[in-house]
Write a structure and sequence with these properties.
single chain, about 425 residues, alpha/beta, Rossmann fold, 3 domains, four-stranded parallel β-sheet, 21 helices, 10 strands, about 10% strand
Length: about 425
């Protein structure tokens, strides 16, 4: 690279070219070839591709005209709706594809932009959303957090961001209470549509989709040949990670799912007792993001376990909401027994596990939520001998300094953790 930048030219060693010849090749496509390919795709399949995708498909047809050498994939890079001029070149009668992200684009004033999107977030650890949305002109972010069940550092992370589009409110009640308030807002469809509301908490299906990718990626890193099972031990509150892991399993990824809960054990009772019960109140624990009496993704995971029987799930939830209790059909429990299990961990068990991790490995980054997951793993498979195992780590331990006081860990390590974040 020094030769390239200083002389404008650099020779590639033959050793590199020999390796490349066995693993990566190139094709050069002209504009005419790309356009010709796009026309062929339209005439043959009535499918409109963008100019970038056309280059890729043209390269594939040049390299292997019959597509007979191997299974082939051409990456599609964008919607053709973004390139109307290119679509017109394909043919005068070729329609411009419709796409909501393109159709809704328009010039906005500063005032219009500020009212474009209102987002609500409620969990106690969602500083990521605050950082991501700060200073965005088209987003107003409203953050609600439970005053009495988060750490000081968590509170400071949310309340010290100086962005005009972010409003943070503390609430006296537990997170379930103001989650219900947000649900009422979204049930008023006219209000939600008028203000372009978006809930970025775990009920948003986008969260579930993203986490599904995480599970598949992790599996492939551990088993690139897809020749083994991997068990995921998941600290669970609203069940977004557990649902996404089970969705991965439904898609054919050979993963086993163990949903590990703390004393707020709604889902554990669901699978072990066969009923949905309305708990009296939330139990506050050090793993505060898991302190929920009603996991928002319970309907989604029941839907997957019911093999897509929406009518059955609706009946279960109607019984639950009207009577305070609902029986889980045996057919759902039978499916669950083969694909997803639960473990219930007490605060004492989680703390004991965190101490063990510190004493045995001098590892300081295990937060209270992660401790619940690891405790569940050691309870389910003490020797970790049954399958390859993954325990999801949920947060930096520096946000929960009170835990380290319990662990009697040296002060300098606490300082290091605070500086890290």
């Amino acid at each position: 690279m020094e030769d390239y930048y200083s002389k404008g030219v650099a020779k590639i060693p033959q050793a590199i070219l020999d390796v490349a010849s066995k693993g990566i090749h190139t094709e050069r496509i002209t504009q005419e070839e790309a356009l010709s390919t796009a026309k062929m795709i339209w005439e043959k399949y009535h499918y409109i591709i963008c100019p970038h995708t056309a280059v890729g498909v043209a390269g594939a047809t040049k390299a292997d005209p019959s597509f007979s050498s191997t299974l082939s994939v051409c990456l599609a890079t964008a919607t053709a709706a973004k390139f109307p001029d290119f679509v017109h070149l394909i043919g005068d009668n070729v329609p411009i594809p419709s796409h909501p992200c393109v159709d809704n684009l328009k010039e906005t004033t500063q005032e219009e932009a500020q009212s474009t999107q209102s987002s609500i977030d409620s969990p106690p650890t969602k500083t990521v959303e605050i950082s991501a949305n700060g200073e965005l002109r088209k987003v107003n972010l409203i953050v609600l957090y439970p005053k009495h069940s988060i750490s000081t550092l968590q509170r400071l992370q949310m309340t010290t961001v100086q962005s005009p589009n972010i409003r943070t409110f503390s609430c006296d009640n537990a997170s379930d209470s103001f989650d219900n308030m947000i649900i009422d807002i979204f049930n008023d469809q006219n209000f939600a549509k008028k203000h372009n509301m978006l809930w970025v908490n775990s009920p948003n299906v986008g969260r579930l989709v993203c986490h599904t990718v995480h599970h598949i990626y992790t599996y492939l890193k551990l088993c690139p040949s897809c020749d083994n099972d991997v068990t995921f031990y998941i600290p669970s509150g609203a069940l977004v990670d557990s649902t996404s892991a089970y969705l991965s399993q439904c898609m054919g990824v050979p993963v086993k799912v163990v949903s590990v809960v703390n004393e707020n054990d709604f889902f554990h009772k669901c699978l072990t007792q066969g009923y949905l019960y309305k708990p009296l109140n939330v139990i506050n624990t050090p793993s505060c993001s898991m302190d929920t009496v009603f996991p928002h993704n319970i309907e989604r995971i029941l839907f997957l376990l019911a093999k897509g029987d929406a009518t059955l799930v609706k009946s279960i939830m109607e019984d639950y909401h009207s009577k305070g209790v609902a029986k889980i059909p045996q057919t759902i429990l039978d499916v669950a027994s083969k694909g997803i299990h639960t473990e219930r961990i007490t605060q004492e068990e989680a703390l004991t596990t965190a101490k063990m991790i510190w004493e045995k490995y001098h590892y300081i980054h295990i937060c209270p939520h992660t401790a619940v997951g690891v405790a569940g793993a050691t309870k389910a498979d003490p020797s970790f001998s049954l399958t390859l195992s993954v325990c999801l780590a949920t947060a930096t331990a520096a946000k929960f300094l009170i835990l380290f006081i319990s662990l009697e860990i040296m002060y300098q390590y606490l300082v290091i953790l605070v500086l890290i974040i």
